[in-house]
Design a protein that fits this description.
Elements (H helix, E strand, L loop, with lengths): L8 E5 L3 H13 L3 E6 L2 H11 L3 E5 L8 H12 L3 E5 L4 H8 L5 E4 L4 H66 L9 H26 L2 H5 L2 H16 L2 E6 L10 H22 L3 E9 L2 E8 L6 H9 L5 H11 L3 E6 L5 E8 L8
Parallel strand pairs: 1-2, 1-3, 3-4, 4-5, 6-7
Antiparallel strand pairs: 7-8, 8-10, 9-10
């Protein structure tokens, strides 16, 4: 299979035409692509916006009112494109001004091809690392905001449930107890039976609240029974059918608690997304281990979506379930991927190191 590797695209900002042609020839010889050549700071900013190069080689002394340092600052602030300065000047004042733009390199003319290549490679590597950090920071901010919002939403839901359900039940029992003497037409046995029914309903509501917060089945029986239970609940609510496939554990060893809760929450989130958006008919949940790797798959035959667009929405504060799943996977040293296309369903795949619960002597 022919795989084309994208060559880094470099914009040259140099007002000496002969020098610019020499730099261009060197770049092409080193395997880079040249996005273009401009001679002024204003053109540099405009070209950075239009061409979005991977790197800008910037002369400091340029014709016009905007020199290379001012242009570099604008390019960094507006487009986060790395800039490497090319200059014949090493004066302290110029270097001090250049430093304020946080350049990715500073090369004094004349320079060798080896020096140019080394500085460019280091600049591209540094920018790639910084881009990943910025992406991670955006994800962290989005997740932090989501955590706070989810926490408040959950507190509000529990408060409403307690007030509307448990509170009403206990109020009814209290009224019955206080008004015992007024209900002459009802015997004590009848009032006690009514109170018992009310208390039983309140207990059922408490159990439902507790299961929603954390299913006791996960702690008592382990991951697979808990997955079957939550799958049955989701299928009953949403109308699709769910199949849970899991390897039998010959040693009956429990997975670590951390691993179990991450897998459970990922499946829970995936099923919620399927119920809300997928319009699926069939869902398959598969859990298997190969050597030291645990693999969890949730696959549906629904309408599918564009994962890249969903990721962009998540970074903007919308649809953060996917980010939450990926963050959970990261916390256990795993990797979560999502494959989907419109009208072709979706597959959520988690791969992580297999860890068992520590035995108690």
């Amino acid at each position: 299979m022919d795989v084309t590797v994208k060559r880094p695209n470099i914009l040259i900002v140099e007002d000496e035409i002969i020098i610019a042609r020499d730099i261009q020839a060197q770049l092409v010889g080193m395997g880079y692509a040249v996005a273009g050549h401009v001679v002024s700071g204003q053109e540099a900013v405009a070209s950075a916006d239009a061409l979005r190069p991977d790197l800008v080689l910037m002369d400091i002394q340029l014709a016009g009112s905007m020199d290379g340092i001012v242009a570099a600052q604008a390019i960094r602030d507006q487009f986060f494109i790395p800039v490497v300065f090319l200059s014949a000047f090493a004066a302290d004042a110029i270097i001090a001004r250049a430093k304020l733009t946080e350049p990715y390199g500073y090369i004094l003319k004349p320079f060798s091809e080896r020096e140019l290549h080394t500085v460019i490679e280091m600049a591209l590597y540094k920018h790639q690392a910084e881009s990943k950090l910025r992406e991670n920071a955006r994800q962290l901010r989005a997740l932090s905001r989501r955590v706070l919002e989810a926490q408040e939403t959950e507190r509000r839901r529990v408060a409403v449930e307690l007030h509307d359900e448990i509170g009403q039940s206990l109020t009814a029992v209290k009224i019955n107890l206080q008004a015992h003497q007024r209900f002459k037409e009802q015997t004590s046995e009848q009032l006690n039976a009514e109170n018992l029914c009310i208390v039983e309903a309140a207990l059922q509501q408490v159990r439902r609240l507790a299961l929603a917060l954390r299913p006791s089945m996960l702690d008592d029986l382990g991951l697979v029974p808990a997955l079957r239970w939550t799958a049955e609940q989701a299928a009953a609510r949403s109308g699709f059918s769910v199949t849970v496939l899991a390897q039998e554990n010959e040693t009956q060893e429990r997975l670590s608690s951390e691993l179990e809760i991450v897998c459970y929450r990922i499946v829970q989130e995936a099923l919620t997304n399927i119920a809300r958006h997928a319009n699926a008919q069939q869902v398959v949940i598969e859990l298997r281990n190969d050597a030291a790797v645990l693999t969890l798959t949730v696959q549906d035959d629904g309408g599918g979506f564009d994962p890249a667009a969903t990721h962009r929405q998540a970074l903007g504060g919308e649809s953060l379930g996917v980010l939450g799943m990926k963050e959970r996977a990261h916390l256990i040293g795993g990797e979560l991927s999502i494959e989907s296309q419109p009208a072709k369903g979706c597959t959520v795949l988690l791969r992580c190191p297999l860890r068992f619960a520590e035995s108690v002597a």
